[in-house]
Automatic annotation (TrEMBL):
InterPro entries: MeTrfase_7 (IPR005299), MeTrfase_capping (IPR042086), SAM-dependent_MTases_sf (IPR029063)
GO annotation terms (biological process): methylation
Keyword Cytoplasm: no
Keywords: Magnesium, Metal-binding, Methyltransferase, Transferase
GO molecular function terms attached to this record: metal ion binding; S-adenosylmethionine-dependent methyltransferase activity
Species: Vitis vinifera (Grape)
The keyword Magnesium appears for this protein: yes
Name the UniProt record assigns to this protein: Salicylate carboxymethyltransferase
Pfam family, one: Methyltransf_7
Transmembrane region(s): none
Amino acid sequence: MEVVQVLCMKGGNGDTSYAQNSLLQKKVISLTKPITDEAISNLFCNNFPARLCIADLGCSSGPNTLFAVLEFVTTVDKVHKKMGHELPEIQVFLNDLPGNDFNTIFKSLPTFQKDLQKTMGAGAESCFVTGVPGSFYGRLFLGKSLHFVHSSYSLQWLSQVPRGLESNKGNIYMASSSPPSVLKAYYEQFQTDFSMFLRCRSEELLEGGSMVLTFLGRISEDPSSKECCYIWELLAVALNDMVAEGLVEEEKMDSFNIPQYTPSPAEVKCEVEKEGSFTINRLEASEVNWNAYHEEVFSRYQKIVADRMSREKTEFVNVTVSMTKRG
Ligand SMILES: C[S@@+](CC[C@H](N)C(=O)[O-])C[C@H]1O[C@@H](n2cnc3c(N)ncnc32)[C@H](O)[C@@H]1O
């Protein structure tokens, strides 16, 4: 089954929905806001377009989706007020895979419009929000139509589970015990996917347009380093225990691998430079503390994670890159 057909965060607003379990991701959006603000402000160095097109890729559904949009629009508003310019019409495209719960986002739009009105007054009516279902590993928008692209905690998802992971037995991701061929297969899939992403966006962004992308990543150059793989190694401990107790089939455990890659800043830089359409303005790593997780298989996982969190420093690493399309 294709990842793009099955991958989605849990929709709705229930206890186990993404909406109720994405505080950590919200923290990351806030943490990287100065970089986003700077990139948006730099769009208006030379001119003030009458229409502005912004896209958030991998927007999911829940409070973070419109929280991010509110931040973009208020930044645009502030810059324009400061420079004495009229606010442009703003088209915001919210993209995610077709299985995403777009309906929940659309239902919260009236509240969002009210919030926007409170923050910026009459200008709020010039902001238009549209859903765009599809994979960001393909074209999503008209050529040369976007001014700014944002994506947070989405690009670590690969387009598919890498091929050639048969020897990754007992693991569900890259791990310290994974053979080198497994690490290579994951890296090559990341290179293929991210270069495709850059190619598509370079066609869609206007000259001088920019992107701020934040990946769940790592600082170390070791792709099986604890800082990115430990969380999945702990989940594998829970699943292996369940295999030993006959609750999960060993074959299923051995054939299950997570379609993610958590790149280092150097790996991100390498792909951007290879593709050649963008100039990197900033490339930074930051850290956020792990958060709690829930759900059936996670009750064991929760105990293991809680135990480790009480004894060790457990943080996720974020890699953020801000870049401008070359002329
Ligand atoms: C962890 S959520 C992040 C959501 C939101 N940006 C946030 O910060 O809370 C990752 C999102 O990326 C989406 N995603 C993964 N692969 C994608 C792809 N190829 N194209 C579009 N969206 C994708 C997932 O469906 C999911 O909603």
